[in-house]
From TrEMBL:
Residues 12-58 form a coiled coil. Keywords: Coiled coil, Hydrogen ion transport, Ion transport, Transport. Transmembrane segments: none annotated. It comes from Circinella minor. GO terms for molecular function: ATP hydrolysis activity; proton-transporting ATPase activity, rotational mechanism. V-ATPase is a heteromultimeric enzyme made up of two complexes: the ATP-hydrolytic V1 complex and the proton translocation V0 complex. This is V-type proton ATPase subunit G.
Length: 117
């Protein structure tokens, strides 16, 4: 009986070793699958980022043209307004100078309204 019980124990030990190997392989497989899943998720995230960045660049390119055109219009209007102001200055500078000199030359000496006699 000792031989059959030691043979049974050896069989059980061998089965236990095999089970441990199977469990270890399952753990390694699970760890590898997690790594692969993370890698795939990171790749998908990078692809999505690149796609959204491209969409944003296209959006900016489409809409910046409109702002460039409006900036050109604003620049033209500003230049026209500056030219108008400069021409008004050129026309009226002599009149303004004469009025200023007239006010300086014509001084009326009278006491201030708050002065008491």
């Amino acid at each position: 009986m000792a031989a059959s019980s030691s043979q049974g124990i050896n069989t059980l030990l061998e089965a236990e070793r095999e089970a441990a190997k199977i469990v270890q392989k399952a753990k390694q497989y699970r760890i590898q699958r997690l790594k692969d899943a993370r890698s795939e998720a990171n790749k998908e995230i990078e692809d999505l980022k690149a796609q959204k960045n491209l969409e944003y660049q296209n959006f900016v390119a489409q809409h910046s043209g409109a702002s460039d055109a409006s900036l050109g219009i604003v620049d033209q209007e500003t230049d026209a307004k500056i030219a108008e102001i400069q021409s008004a200055f050129a026309e009226n500078k002599d009149i303004a100078t004469e009025k200023l000199l007239g006010a300086i030359k014509r001084v009326e000496a009278k006491p201030h309204i708050n002065v008491r006699v």
